Amino acid sequence: MCGIVGAIQRDAGVVQTLLEGLRLLEYRGYDSAGVAVLDAGAIAIRRKAGRLERLELALTDGALSAARAGIGHTRWATHGPPSDENAHPHTDAEGRVALVHNGIVENWAELRAELEASGVRFASDTDTEVLAHLVGREVARGSSLFDAVRASLARVRGYYAIAALSLEEQGARLVCARSGPPLAVAAGPDGVYLASDVLALIAHTRDVVFLEDGDVAELELGRAPRVTRIDGTPVERPARRVEWDPEAAGKGSFPHFMLKEIHEQPDVLARTAFDRLRLESGDVDFGVPGFSDAELRAIDRVQVVACGTALHAGWIARYLIEGLARVPVDVDYASEFRYREPVLSASTLALAISQSGETADTLAALRLARSLGARTTAICNVLGSTLVREAQATILTQAGPEIGVASTKAFVAQCVAAYLFAVRLGRARGVLSLQQGRELVSDLRLLRPQMESLLGERAVSEVRAIARQNQSQRGFLFLGRGINYPIALEGALKLKEISYVHAEGYPAGEMKHGPIALIDPEMSILVVASRGPLAEKVRSNLEQVRARGGHVIVIGSDEESIAKSDEHVRVPVCSEWLSPILNVIPLQLVAYHMADLKGLDIDKPRNLAKSVTVE
Ligand code: M6R
């Protein structure tokens, strides 16, 4: 949940390099930030509670501008409130080492008691400081930083990505390690670098080494990173080329990443799907192992595990897989799945969906499914992520880096990937005929201009008017049915996470069993109403709302529903299976504009972090 960076560069100015890296990782946590650099024979630390700007301000004096080696951190608090003292980096008592950490040291209380008993005085409430003292103690005994980190980590229970620098090494080496949260290292022409996310590396080089759990790496200018296991056994970790464009990590001309990412969705559809479509054979080719006819015919059940927005894509996957491939699907919150006693078999496919590929609950659910004998497949956006490395097969979504904490384009990419998978499964199992396959594949090609029309000026100004009209409402109910029920859930999640208003998603037919009591003129009801087999049912639910004085906003293509609404956004007609991908766009925009009108911090909503790597 925190972001860490580190660099040793040929030239001065490492502080700027670290700040640029932290800026790109701020999505991972943003309640405090800090850097430690080797400067004039000492470790200099600057750290500040609050957003990165406060740290930048504290560094404008240029006092550390000659430094060439350092580490940095942006925090999402776990142990101790956000404060200058709890901000990373942390040091040992003698200031020999500085250390940044993402994760949790589970036995920190025990280790802290032991260190205190030996006379160590702590300066913060964090679990991280324990690590700094442990490493410092080893260095004081004469160990190299590399050996000191390995020896200290051998005593730690928990999960971590850490980076450390030491006064003894005079900035010539940085050491980092991972067990759980992601960490990548890279050697470029001008320096060597480490970061929690490749986003912070691709400005320097596209060739990146993804560390595995249990790896420790030593970085030194002019050579490839040395990687060993914690016990010192050397391992080969070849660099992999990352194709992401460094430009994609910027906002371009958009005021917020979220808006930029919403507008990227038509391209995301094309990138995720078009090269994989086979019009002639009415099929999909993922171009990677794990999706052959034989492998897919061996599946008799799918178990989806995911969290948040990815879970909503999982619900959509359920409708698609059951509808198009006739394979039963269960969908579980990963955080619940891991603590029930699920019954899986070798013919179950566990499908884990995640943008980051680092969500702790999703990873735990995938591991549990595998330990119970299921085959595992991931739908994931991040090459080299833990999920991709651990799943037996992966459909990589091509959303590009998603920075806004509220997930938008990754969701669309996940829905597209689920559609592709359902078509492939249906074709492999002989459930879909050649003709049906061709139609499904062609339908996807028609979607891009329809998505673009929903992002055109007229549609966007309609949405903004809806946001303005409804911004003072007491609450929001999102209703949908069938494959658009998950879109109601997703619309409500988007609104609450960035606008801080209460919103609930509900299956429209379930409303009469309770939520209908909430309806009054201060409650806005957003109804997802597409043309299709359930349109008539949705209309009657809509009538029930109107009869109780609710303010009705229809998002969809069903004209009769639109005619009954107080406000609406008309969505182009497409196949029922693909309608969620269109319907979600106005809902994302309603949430965005509502938050914007309220002047809220859209890309970094309070209390949240982009990647939830803690349980
Ligand atoms: O990286 P993941 O897709 O695994 O993340 C899952 C959720 O944490 C994520 O979708 C979260 O709900 C978003 N903030 C929603 O916008």
The small molecules bound here are: 5-amino-5-deoxy-1-O-phosphono-D-mannitol
- Could you list the spans in which at least 5 consecutive residues all have pLDDT below 50? none
| CATH fold-level name of the largest domain | Glutamine Phosphoribosylpyrophosphate, subunit 1, domain 1
State the share of residues found in helices, binned by percent. 25-40%
Describe the biggest sheet? Answer: 8 strands, antiparallel
Query: Which class best fits the helix and strand makeup?
Result: alpha/beta
Number of helices: 19
Strand residue content:
15-25%
N- and C-termini, Cα separation: 10 Å
Strand arrangement within the widest β-sheet reads: 3-2-4-1-10-9-11-14
Mean pLDDT: 94
Q: Radius of gyration, rounded?
A: 25 Å
CATH homology-level superfamily of the largest domain: Aminohydrolase, N-terminal nucleophile (Ntn) domain
What's the shape? globular
